[in-house]
Amino acid sequence: MLRTLLSDDRPRSRVLAGLLILVVLGLALAPFVFPGIRSLNTAATICVFIVLVASYDLLLGYTGIVSFAHTMFYGIGAYGVAIALHAMPGSWGAVALGTVCGLALAMGLALLIGLFALRVQAIFFAMVTLAVASAFLILASQLSTLTGGEDGLTYRVPRLLSPAFRMVDGQVLGVRLDGRIVSYYLIFASALVLVLAMLRIVNSPFGRVLQAIRENEFRAEALGYRTAVYRTAATCLAAGAAALAGVLMALWLKYTGPDTTLSLSIMIDILLMVVIGGMGTIYGAVIGATLFVLAKNYLQVLMASAAASVADVPLLVDLISPERWLLWLGVLFVLSVYFFPTGIVGRLRERA
Fold it and tell me: Please, are residues 24 and 188 in contact by the beta-carbon 8 Å criterion?
C-alpha cells in the first residue's frame, strides 16, 4: 500500500525515510504539538512551499528547464481566488470559480510560453520567462481596480475557514478547534495529495521521458520522442501545480499582493529550496522547503537568544546580532551546497 502511494519511489535511505516521516508527522500534528499562531502559520507555509518547490523541480530537476516565471503561475492562482472572493465575499462558489480560472489561465500561459520559447536554447528561454514574469508583476501592480495595485486585495473567506467558526465548544488537547484549524488541514491534505500526484507523474513513463530529455535531448529526439511536446506538457503541469499552491496560500493568508506572490525574492527562495533539498527528487522539495522555511522564520529568534547570552562579548554579540540573520542564512546555504553538492536527499542516498 505504501509503495503504491509512493509510486514505488522509496527513499532508499533510512535517515531520509526518518526525516520524511518526521516532517509528515510534524505537519500533521502541528496544531496540537506546536500551538500558537506563529507555529501554525509556519506549518501552513511549509505545506504550500513544498508543493511550489516540487512543481518547480518538475521543471528544473526532472526536465532540465530553467524558468523564472514560476512565481507568475503561483501569483495567478492566488489572484484568481482573491479577485473572486473580493467580488463575492465568503462564497465557496467564488473559491471554485477563482481556482478554475486561475488554473486555466496559468496553464494557458504556460502553453503559450512553451510553444513560443521552448524551442530556443536554455539561457534564452530563461530570459523570456524572466521578461514575462516581470511584465506580469508590473501589470498586477498597476491594475489597481482589479488587483488592488501595490496594496493588494484583502477578502473574506468562507465561514468554515475563518476563526469565527467553532467545531466544538471549549478546547481539545489545549487547542481551540476553529476555522483556522479547518483551513490548515485543508492545506495539509491538499499539499499531500498534490505531492503524491507529482511523485506519480515523475515515476510514470512520461516522467522517464522527461529525465531522458534532461540527460540528452538530442538522443531522446533521435529515439522518436517529440521533446518540444514533452517539455511543453511539463511546463503546463508545473504551472498548474504552482497555481494550486497559490490558491492554498490565498485561502490561508486572506490577502494577496505582489510582494507575497509575484516578487523575484520568492523565485530566489524557490531556487534555494530546490538546491538545498536536491534536484531531480520530489523528496528534496519536502526536505528543502521545510528546512528553509524553518530557518527563515526562526533563525532570527535563535540569534536573538544567542546574542543575549553573550552580551558581554563585544565582537561576538555584534556578529550574531539578529539584524544579521540574512548573512547567516546565506552562510548556511553556502555550507549546504559545499557539503551537499547533490542536495541533502542526493547525499543521503549516495551514503546509503
Answer: no
Classify residue 7 as left (phi > 0), alpha (psi -120 to 50) or beta: left
Tell me if residue 325 falls in helix, strand or coil.
Answer: helix
d(CA 292, CA 288): 6
What is the domain range of residue 187? 28-281
Per-residue pLDDT of 313-341, as tens digits, reads 677 777 777 777 777 778 888 888 788 88
Neighbouring residues of 156: CB distance < 8 A, sequence distance ≥ 6: 85, 89, 90, 162, 254
- Strand-pair partners of 6: none
Look at residues 252, 74, 75, 44 and name the one whose alpha carbon lies nearest to residue 148. Answer: 75
Number of compact structural domains in the chain: 1
Residue 165, all three cell numbers: 467558526
In this structure, are residues 288 and 275 in contact, taking their beta carbons and an 8 Å threshold? Answer: yes
C-alpha cell at 197: 500526484
Alpha-carbon span 232 to 116, nearest angstrom: 10
Which tens digits make up the pLDDT trace of 99-114? Answer: 999 999 999 999 988 8
Sign of CA dihedral 76, 251, 57, 197: negative
In a domain, 304, yes or no: no
Enter the C-alpha cell of residue 329.
542564512
Residue 195 lies in a domain: yes
Q: 153 forms bridges with which residues in the sheet?
A: 256
